[in-house]
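User: Design a sequence. Structure:
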C-alpha cells in the first residue's frame, strides 16, 4: 500500500485504503422499497461536485451507487449565509440529476427528509446498510475535520473503505511537503514559479512569457473616474433552485443573508458560461483593477468563479488554460492573464498546501495574542465607516466580497482592533459563498491576521486610511475625514493603525518589512502618539460586541 510522506501522519493519503465492516444483516426497507445490493458506495460531499472526481473515475457506474447528503451539521457548523446554503444545496441537487441522466444510481438525502440524521458518518452508515455494499469509496475531503471523522469511523469498523486523492488540485500533498522541506521561510512566489513550470502555463523554453513572473506593478491601479465595469453574468433560478430557496427561507428565517435575487450558477453548463463571460468581458481589465474598490460596484472586473472552482463545477486547470488561451488569441493582456492565473495555480494551491501541512494545530495559532470579540456590525453592516459598511452590506446581500475588501477592509480593521483570529475565521467561513476551511483559514488566520507569526505572509497587512483612500472612492462618501488623525471626525483607521504599531512593537520590531513603520514611530512626537492611542482606545470602547447569530 503506497503511502505519502509525512502528511499520512495526519491520515491523508493518495490511494490510502481503510477497512470498515458492519455486523448487521437484517433486510433494510426504506420508503417501501428494498435497495438492491451494490458493490461500491460512493459518498460525494457538497464541495466535490465534479463528474471527473477521482472516486468516480475508478468506479463502474453499473456496480456503484452515489450518495449525496444535505447535512445539518455542515449547514450549522457556523451560521452560514443563506445564499451560500442555497448555492450548495441547489448545486448538489442539479449534480444529482445530471449523474442520474449519465446512468448512475443516486441515493439523495435531502435536508428536510424526516429520516435525515444530519450527521455525515451516520448517513454513510445507514447507506451502507440500505445498499448492502461491500466497499465504500470516497474522494478525500477538503478539510481536516471531515477526514478525521472518516478515519475515526474506519478505526471502529471493518468493510473496505477507500479514500482516493482529490484530483481537482494540481499539487499533491507529498509534492508540497517536498517543496516545503528544509525551507526557513515559505513564500508563495517561489511555489508559484514551480507550478508554472509544472503546468507549462505561460512558459516558453522554461522561462516566463514576457520575461517576468508577475506584473504586480501595473496591477494596482485605483478606480479611474467614470469607470463602469460590466455587470456579472446572472442566472435566473429554475424550479430546483426555487424549491431550495423556499426551503431555506422556511427552515432558517433568522439566519443572516438575503435570499432574494439569487443569480449564481448551480450547474456545470452555467459555470462554463460564467467562465466564457469573464474572459470575453472582464478579463481584459481585470489585472490593472484587481485591487480597486468602488462604492456600489461589488464585483468590478472579478470573475466570481471561485465558488464554482471550489465545489467542482469548474476545474482549476481548465480555467487557467482558458485564460491562457485568451492571451495567445489576443483577447486579454499579459498582466491580466498572469495576475488571474497566479491566483489559482499560485495562491490557491499554496494555501491548500499550508493548510494540510499545519493542521490541526494551525487553528490554535495566535501570534499577536489577539482576544477581542468580533464587532456586531460585521453581522449587520451598521457602522458610519463607509468602507466597512459598503463591504458588510455587500457581503450580506451577495455572500461575496473580493480579496482586497476581505484583506484590507474587513481583515485590516479586525487586525487593528485585535479581534481573535478564530472569531474572524468563523465569520469569513460563514458569510462568503466561496469559503471552505482549507482555503479560508490560512487566508484569514495567516495572511490577514498574522496569527501564524509570518508563516503565510511576511508582514501584517495593517494600514491606515491612506491605503483605502488611494485604492478606492470610499472615503469621499464617508462621515469621517481620511486626512485627519485626531478628533471626532478623524478616520478611525488612522489612530487604530498607530495604536496597533505601538502595542505590537515587541512582536513586530524585528520584522524587516516593518522597519519603516517603526522608524516613523520612533520619530513621532510622544504627545501625538499618546493622543492617537487614547483616540483608538476610546473608539474601540464604543464598538458593540457581537451578538449570537447562530
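Assistant: Done.
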Amino acid at each position: 500500500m503506497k503511502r505519502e510522506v509525512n502528511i499520512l501522519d495526519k491520515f491523508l493519503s493518495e490511494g490510502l485504503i481503510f477497512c470498515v465492516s458492519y455486523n448487521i444483516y437484517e433486510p433494510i426497507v426504506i420508503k417501501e422499497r428494498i435497495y438492491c445490493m451494490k458493490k461500491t458506495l460512493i459518498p460525494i460531499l457538497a464541495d466535490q461536485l465534479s463528474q471527473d472526481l477521482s472516486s468516480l473515475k475508478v468506479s463502474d457506474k453499473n456496480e456503484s451507487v452515489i450518495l449525496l447528503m444535505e447535512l445539518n451539521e455542515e449547514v450549522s457548523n457556523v451560521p452560514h449565509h443563506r445564499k451560500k446554503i442555497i448555492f450548495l444545496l441547489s448545486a448538489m441537487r442539479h449534480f444529482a440529476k445530471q449523474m442520474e441522466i449519465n446512468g448512475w444510481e443516486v441515493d439523495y438525502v435531502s435536508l428536510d427528509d424526516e429520516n435525515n440524521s444530519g450527521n455525515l458518518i451516520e448517513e454513510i452508515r445507514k447507506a451502507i446498510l440500505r445498499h448492502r455494499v461491500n466497499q465504500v469509496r470516497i474522494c478525500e475531503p477538503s478539510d481536516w475535520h471531515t477526514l478525521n471523522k472518516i478515519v475515526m469511523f474506519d478505526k471502529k469498523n471493518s468493510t473496505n473503505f477507500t479514500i482516493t486523492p482529490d484530483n481537482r488540485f494540481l499539487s499533491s500533498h507529498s509534492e508540497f511537503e517536498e517543496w516545503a522541506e528544509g525551507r526557513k521561510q515559505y513564500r508563495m512566489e517561489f511555489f508559484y514559479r514551480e507550478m508554472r513550470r509544472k503546468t507549462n502555463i505561460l512558459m516558453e523554453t522554461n522561462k516566463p512569457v514576457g520575461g517576468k513572473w508577475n506584473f504586480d506593478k501595473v496591477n494596482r491601479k485605483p478606480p479611474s473616474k467614470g469607470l463602469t465595469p460590466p455587470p456579472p453574468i446572472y442566472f435566473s433560478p429554475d424550479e430546483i433552485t426555487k424549491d431550495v430557496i423556499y426551503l431555506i427561507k422556511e427552515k432558517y428565517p433568522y439566519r443572516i443573508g438575503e435570499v432574494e435575487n439569487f443569480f449564481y450558477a448551480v450547474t456545470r453548463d452555467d459555470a462554463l458560461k460564467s467562465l466564457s463571460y469573464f474572459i470575453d468581458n472582464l478579463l481584459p481589465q481585470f489585472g490593472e483593477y484587481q485591487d480597486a474598490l468602488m462604492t456600489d460596484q461589488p464585483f468590478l472586473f472579478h470573475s466570481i468563479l471561485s465558488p464554482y472552482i471550489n465545489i467542482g463545477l469548474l476545474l482549476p486547470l481548465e480555467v487557467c488554460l482558458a485564460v491562457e488561451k485568451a492571451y495567445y488569441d489576443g483577447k486579454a493582456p499579459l498582466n491580466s492573464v498572469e495576475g488571474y492565473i497566479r491566483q489559482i495555480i499560485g495562491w490557491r494551491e499554496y494555501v491548500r498546501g499550508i493548510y494540510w501541512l499545519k493542521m490541526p494545530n494551525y487553528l490554535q495559532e495566535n501570534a499577536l495574542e489577539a482576544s477581542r470579540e468580533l464587532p456586531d456590525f460585521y453581522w449587520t453592516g451598521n457602522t458610519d465607516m463607509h468602507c466597512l459598511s459598503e463591504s458588510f452590506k455587500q457581503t450580506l446581500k451577495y455572500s461575496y466580497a473580493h480579496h482586497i475588501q476581505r484583506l484590507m477592509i474587513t481583515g485590516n480593521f479586525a487586525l487593528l482592533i485585535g479581534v481573535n483570529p478564530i472569531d474572524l475565521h468563523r465569520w469569513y467561513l460563514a458569510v462568503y459563498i466561496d469559503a471552505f476551511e482549507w482555503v479560508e483559514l490560512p487566508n484569514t488566520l495567516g495572511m490577514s491576521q498574522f496569527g501564524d507569526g509570518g508563516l503565510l505572509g511576511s508582514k501584517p497587512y495593517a494600514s491606515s486610511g491612506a491605503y483605502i483612500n488611494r485604492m478606492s472612492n470610499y472615503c469621499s462618501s464617508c462621515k469621517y475625514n481620511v486626512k485627519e488623525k485626531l478628533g471626532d471626525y478623524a478616520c478611525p483607521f488612522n489612530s487604530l493603525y498607530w495604536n496597533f504599531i505601538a502595542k505590537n512593537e515587541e512582536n513586530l520590531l524585528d520584522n524587516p518589512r516593518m522597519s519603516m513603520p517603526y522608524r516613523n514611530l520612533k520619530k513621532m512626537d510622544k504627545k501625538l502618539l499618546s493622543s492617537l492611542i487614547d483616540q483608538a482606545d476610546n473608539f474601540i470602547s464604543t464598538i458593540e460586541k457581537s451578538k449570537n447569530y447562530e
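The first helix runs from residue 54 to 57. Confidence is low (pLDDT under 50) at residues 1-35.
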